[in-house]
Amino acid sequence: MAEISDYKTIRDALTPQQRSEDMYMSIDPGFVHIRKIETILRDFGGMEYIDKDIKALPELPEWMKRVRIDHIYTNHIVSLCSALDIPTLNEALGNENGRLFSSIEYTQPTDGVWEGGHVATYIKPQAAHGKYTVRLSYDASRVTSDTVKGQLSEGSELAIIAQYAGREGDELIFHPLVIGAPWLAPKSDKSIISSSEAPWHSHEFFENFVEDFDEFSKVKDEPKPEDISIMKDISESAFKHCLGEIISEQTVKDWGGETSDHYTANIHLNGQRTTAAFLLKGPAKFSPMKLTHLGKNADQIYRLAQEPAQVLIVQHCHDILSPVRATLRAFAVRPGESRRYCLIDGRDSLRLIKAYDKLDRALSLSRKSK
Predict the structure, then answer these.
(1) Which of 64, 240, 277, 298 has its Cα between 20 and 30 A from that of 247?
(2) CA 125, CA 148: separation in Å to the nearest integer?
(3) Reported pTM
(4) DSSP strand E in 169-199: where?
(5) From CA 220, how far away is CA 210, in angstroms rounded?
(6) How confident is the model over 74-98, as pLDDT tens digits?
(7) If residue 216 lies in a helix (H) or strand (E), which one and from where to where?
(8) C-alpha of 212 from chain center
(9) Helices assigned H by DSSP within 14-140
(10) Helix (H) or strand (E) holding 152
(11) Is it the case that residue 182 has pLDDT exceeding 60?
């Protein structure tokens, strides 16, 4: 059997069934602010469970006990954030509200982490929220993991739960509660992805592909097209209409206040019914999708994320560039209960309508709409 590291992408590494498993995004902590976490958990009666878990620890060397306690506090604050639907940083910036955020973010290189003392780590949000700079302010002596120290020093992708502390001009200041590596774990012992394989995928695990959905499963038998130029002749409204026919739903015309182009509660992943919100982009700009295709500050992805959907789907008639994928992932995936995300580029869009014999239908509807 090939090792998981032999594969280039999760699309190649896992089957649709494996990609659709129920997994949990936790944090392997390197920074835990116990006092601040206790203050928050106490308001929700959480300290009773913390004390119970600590009391259940076996006799351990002091350093190991300290690590275990950090994990206990981390697991409980992650669970609380998930239960309260605490927003990701991008969501919090988008609605300019929220005292906490819980998400996976890119940090810029931080000076002074190895020396200890007060430091400032700046975060580069995925969406182009040019209005604000985001700063984590904390005591580096609380960073107990050399790995996390190195990641903060050099700049890295880290799982962060942080509390709003104030504002200085256009700079928003947060105090971190937890900083660590995103850590993917199976929810069930019956998982077909072993606990040793799961961490390789990290937060990318929550990406699904068009063929993963039961309603679109015929796509896997449709060859990848070499030429997608025909997609420039298929209007967004025609693609949307054909999409509705494939999933046996009516679609409505776009209107100015919409948060998505289509919402469905009748789509399935590996036999499990789920909800999905679609953002569709036609050939008005027949070119690779950049964040500039998605409105000012990529606010169309922000609006899509406001839908009560378990899957966020972005479709485009051409290629979809990596900043769009990273931004969609930043809105969907967070520590705790993550949502899933899917990108359907021009190749997969063409495969979809061909697999379900909708190509001629889409072209006909496009000509009629001109």
Answers:
(1) 298
(2) 19
(3) 0.90
(4) 171-186
(5) 9
(6) 999 999 999 999 999 988 888 877 7
(7) none
(8) 17
(9) 16-19, 34-42, 47-55, 62-83, 89-95
(10) helix 146-154
(11) yes
Look up residue 305 and give its amino acid.
A
Residue with tokens 């378990």: 310
Selection from 189, 254, 242 nearest residue 216 by Cα: 242
Amino acid letter at 51? D
C-alpha angle with apex 203: 51 to 279, nearest 5 degrees?
Answer: 125
| Cα 25 to Cα 198: distance, rounded to the nearest angstrom | 10
Please say whether the beta carbons of 327 and 299 come within 8 A. Answer: no
Dist. CA 291–CA 359, nearest whole Å: 28
Residue 3: pLDDT over 80: no
CB atoms near residue 14 (< 10 Å): 20
E-assigned strand segments in 292-344: 311-316, 340-344
Q: Hey, what amino acid is at 39?
A: T
CB neighbours (10 Å) of residue 282?
A: 21
The label of the residue with tokens 């984590």 reads: 136
Q: Could you state, in order of their start, the residue ranges of all structural domains in the chain?
A: 22-186, 204-369
In the sheet where 272-281 sits, what is the strand order? 207-208, 340-344, 311-316, 272-281, 262-269
- 102 phi and psi angles, rounded to 5 deg: -140, 110
| 100-107/23-32 β-pairing | unpaired
Going from the C-alpha of 224 to that of each of 240, 301, 350, the distances in angstroms are 21, 27, 9
At 295, give phi and psi (nearest 5°).
Answer: 85, 170
Q: Is 52 left (phi over 0), alpha (psi -120 to 50) or beta?
A: alpha
